[in-house]
Amino acid sequence: MLYSKALTIITLLTPLTLASIIPIPLESRACAYSCASHCYTKAAVSEAQDAGYKLYSSNNDVNDYPHEYHNYEDFDFPVPGDYYEFPILTSGKTYDGGSPGADRVIFNTDNQLAGVITHSGASGGDFVACTS
């Protein structure tokens, strides 16, 4: 009887113990930016930015990305320009050609993130800010 109670207690505590040993960081699942109905984690934004900056700094491009972003919409970015835009894909993959989709990461020549913007919900070829 005592063995049975001990086994029951161990069985009940095991999932709690495992959950405290193997936590899934909230940051890896949290939405850092929302562009229309798409959610991007901080890691996804960072990966797109790094890919764009790597191409920029080596004077290369993929289908003309990254290219200079002129900020015609007059966004108040937290870092100084000159700005460059690079696609961030809803698939989670790094842009390597083809359709760039609607969403972009904006970074400056010092590889500082300026923001994330989208064509979704904007008129014409304009952009609107993604929410953070």
Automatic annotation (TrEMBL):
- Lyase among keywords: yes
What's an example of a GO molecular-function annotation for this chain? ribonuclease T1 activity
Q: Which InterPro entries match?
A: N1-like (IPR000026), Ribonuclease/ribotoxin (IPR016191)
Which is a Pfam family this sequence falls into?
Answer: Ribonuclease
> What UniProt keywords apply to this chain's record, in alphabetical order?
Disulfide bond, Endonuclease, Hydrolase, Lyase, Nuclease, Signal
Leader sequence segment: 1-19
EC class name = lyase
Q: What is its EC number?
A: 4.6.1.24
Reaction equations catalysed: [RNA] containing guanosine + H2O = an [RNA fragment]-3'-guanosine-3'-phosphate + a 5'-hydroxy-ribonucleotide-3'-[RNA fragment]
Q: Family per UniProt?
A: Belongs to the ribonuclease N1/T1 family.
Q: What is this protein called?
A: ribonuclease T1
Q: Which organism is it from?
A: Aspergillus sclerotialis
Instruction: Give the source lineage, highest ranks first.
Output: Eukaryota, Fungi, Dikarya, Ascomycota, Pezizomycotina
